Amino acid sequence: MSDPREQRPVRVLQSFGGPRPTTNPYLVQLLDSLPADVRARTFSWRDALRGDYDVLHVHWPELLVRSAGRGRTALRRLAFTALMLRLLLRRSAVVRTLHNVSPHEGGSASERALLRWLDRSTTRYVRLNPATEPPTAAPVDTILHGDYTRWYADQTVPDPVPGRVLHFGLVRPYKGVEELLDAFAAVTTPGAQLRLVGRATDDGLAARIRAAERTDARVSTLLDYVDDETLAHEVGSASLVVLPYRRMHNSGALLLALSLGRPVLVPSNEVTEALAQEVGGHWVRTYPGDAVTTAAVEEALSLPVDGVPGPDLSRRDWTDIGRLHRDTYRAAVTARRAG
Questions:
Q1: What does the record give under GO molecular function (predicted)?
Q2: Mean pLDDT computed over 278-289
Q3: Across 103-121, average pLDDT
Q4: Which of 1, 54, 85, 268 lies most in the core, judged by the most C-beta atoms within 10 Å?
């Protein structure tokens, strides 16, 4: 006889709070895509420590142990410790999505120890591409990162401006913006211009960008958070999106650009070459080496996309992604009960 618990909806607590205008669209679309037999809710510490749920689904685990100031960080880590003990005592399953190989900004030794504890407690991993190696031997499911086609379906997307190169998203040191500025300074393509859009998280990097804007009339910036309407306009106006990340692994920005029908220049690695094979080489253009070069930008700008079939994003449909997450949650619950 089947376990009646397997017939009821699986209850999932996500590790992010209620959606806001600045919430990563990946998370919002994941919530919306989950089928009716998944009862998902967003995170609060009260719910995490006192609520009933079958699965804790963790995204970017470092955010669970970080806060502003030493005192608040210490309290957050005490709460995290209590959460880990509660998960153990209640035999709750933990699913963790491997968005990054490691946190973009490194943490302290105590933070790393807490995150290793979470890894040891993880029942099942979700990876967004098959190249990601999970940190433990727990089972892993590959569920590709979804597209943004429906997310931007109601936005107006303008025609591309010939020669316009765009970099967008949070401006962080690891994203290779300084190398892009250096490479673009030597670009001689007629009509070329560089647009940088997104909030800068590093004051020194922001100053470097503004200096380039002052000295090169072809460079313009909007160094602030932008809403979906503005972002659709900025991406649509680009002839080429350049994402010269020093550690390119999973990129929502890359898929966003493809969803709006704009070609992207990225570093060559196992992940980006596989994506080029999947969606079409006209749309994902790669360069070798650690840093983007002037030649790579000029060559990518010279390749037309007129008459080329749009990027094939058929494997990135959110209906399938929601169903696959449901299957992962159920497998994790079954394994936790059996173990």
A1: glycosyltransferase activity
A2: 96
A3: 86
A4: 54
In a shared domain, residues 24 and 95: yes
Angle at 161 between CA 158 and CA 162, to 5 degrees: 145
One domain, residues 14 and 61: yes
Residue 200's contacts (CB-CB under 8 Å, 6 or more residues apart) are 170, 171, 206, 209, 223
Same domain for 207 and 177, yes or no, is yes
Say if residue 169 is in the same domain as residue 309.
yes
In CATH, what number is assigned to the domain containing residue 196? 3.40.50.2000
Residue 102's domain is classified under what CATH number?
3.40.50
Overall domain count for the chain: 2
The predicted structure's pLDDT at residue 56: 98
Amino acid letter, 141 = D
Distance of alpha carbon 291 from alpha carbon 177, whole angstroms: 10
Any idea what the Cα angle at residue 191 is, between residues 186 and 197, rounded to 5°? 75
Q: What phi and psi, each to the nearest 5 degrees, are found at residue 291? A: -130, 145
pLDDT, tens digit (0-9, with 9 covering 90-100), for 78-97: 999 999 999 999 999 999 99
Beta strands in the chain (DSSP E): 10-14, 38-41, 55-59, 93-98, 124-127, 140-142, 164-168, 193-197, 219-222, 240-242, 264-267, 284-287
Q: Are 172 and 243 in contact (CB under 8 A)?
A: no
CA distance 233 to 237: 6
Do 169 and 300 belong to one domain?
Answer: yes
Both 245 and 321 in a single domain?
no
